[in-house]
Amino acid sequence: MNLGFFFHIAFLLPLLCILAILSLFIGVSDIHIFDILQGHSLENEVFLISRIPRTITIIITGMSLSICGLIMQQLTQNKFVSPTTAGTMDCAKLGILVSMIFFAQSAFITQVFIASLFALAGSLIFLQILNKIKLKNLILVPLIGLMFGGVINSITTFFAYQMNLIQNMQGWLQGDFSNTMQGSYELIYLTLPLLLLAFLYANKITIAGMGKDIATNLGLSYQFILNLGLIIVSIIVSVIILMAGVIPFLGLIVPNIVSIFKGDDLRGSILIVGLFGAVLMLVCDIFSRLIIYPFEVPISLTLGVLGSFMFALILLKKKNYA
Question: How far is CA 140 from the centre of its chain?
Fold first, then answer.
């Protein structure tokens, strides 16, 4: 069978709908569709307050992080770059710590803004580091990003320890959707207009990824597209970290797998990347909820194991392709 069939909208969209329905009816509370149709109050409340918000958040998170990874890989022309391996998530964590210390009483959107600024600054610093280094080995670049993220993470941990916020940070930033409920998840919709912007500028981001000289010769404002792409990634990553915590490796492995079958054209593959990311997130979340049922493990653990394995596989087997 041609594996390319699995990366087509006609396959991914129905699969996403099936997994979403499964996700709605998996959990500690036993809910059947007949309970919903007959209007049982308790089942309806669990369904509306917990199950639907959780499933929507997982789908949007999967699409958003996957597309963020695709944008970063296009802008840097490196298949190993993603919010996880470029220090973007670690900088957003530092921004969250700063907002917890200095803006604890501020509105949630203020904390998103501060975390986004730190994530954007981190992405710009990472790009400056790439411009400075002489040896731009494809494998060396993400390793530099991981070291940069490690340094930022160490600084965050040091100040969190000094301020006695270690447990708050770990509890908040653990990638987990078990606490996603009505009234606390709506900010995830902030990522939707940004995703629409990414769709509209997909062709220009692809051209910008060819380099400053080519983009300028084609009449494109290279710096504007670069900044736009980084702003989209920074805000989306910050919102998701604040909503669900750190979700590792998704932005790295999904674009790489899809590009094997769909190529490197961002315009042609961005929708497939988003759908595949959402499907993978739902599969990992359902697995996390069932493996020690009725308890569950954080989805960050499941994706961390799967993502690190895939990352190692890409480093070892696909470096010629990348």
Answer: 22
Q: 100: which 2 tokens?
A: 């917890």
Nearest Cα neighbor of 198 from 122, 270, 124 is: 270
Tell me how long the chain is: 322
**Residue 117 — φ and ψ, nearest 5°?**
-60, -45
**Residue labelled with tokens 């036993």:** 30
Residue 8 burial (C-beta neighbours within 10 Å; 0-12, 13-18, 19+) = middle
Provide CB contacts within 8 A for 99, sequence distance 6+: 106, 110, 111, 114, 115
Residue 111: other Cβ atoms inside 10 A = 19
Which residue in the block uniquely carries the two structure tokens 């980084």?
230
Which residue, chain included where needed, has tokens 């998103």?
112
Q: Find out whether 230 and 76 touch, Cβ atoms under 8 Å.
A: no
CA distance 76 to 229: 11
Tokens of 143: 């390793």
Query: CA neighbours within 13 Å on the CB side: how many for 209?
Result: 23
Residues 116, 89: contact at Cβ < 8 Å? no
What CA–CA distance (Å, rounded) separates 216 from 21? 47
Contact assessment for residue 242 and residue 108, using Cβ atoms and an 8 Å cutoff: yes
Unique residue bearing structure tokens 């160490």: 154
Q: Transcribe 194-254 into DSSP letters.
A: HHHHHHHTHHHHHHHTT-HHHHHHTT--HHHHHHHHHHHHHHHHHHHHHHH-B--SHHHHH
User: pLDDT tens-digit profile of 228-276?
Assistant: 888 888 888 888 888 888 888 888 889 888 888 877 777 778 899 999 9
Q: How many CB atoms lie within 10 A of CB 39?
A: 8
Distances (CA, A) of 235 to 91, 110, 162, 205: 12, 12, 28, 17
Cis amide leading into 294 (omega within 30): yes
Q: Strand pairing partners for 174? A: 246
| Amino acid in the structure at residue 161 | Y
Per-residue model confidence as pLDDT tens digits over 283-299 = 999 999 998 888 888 88
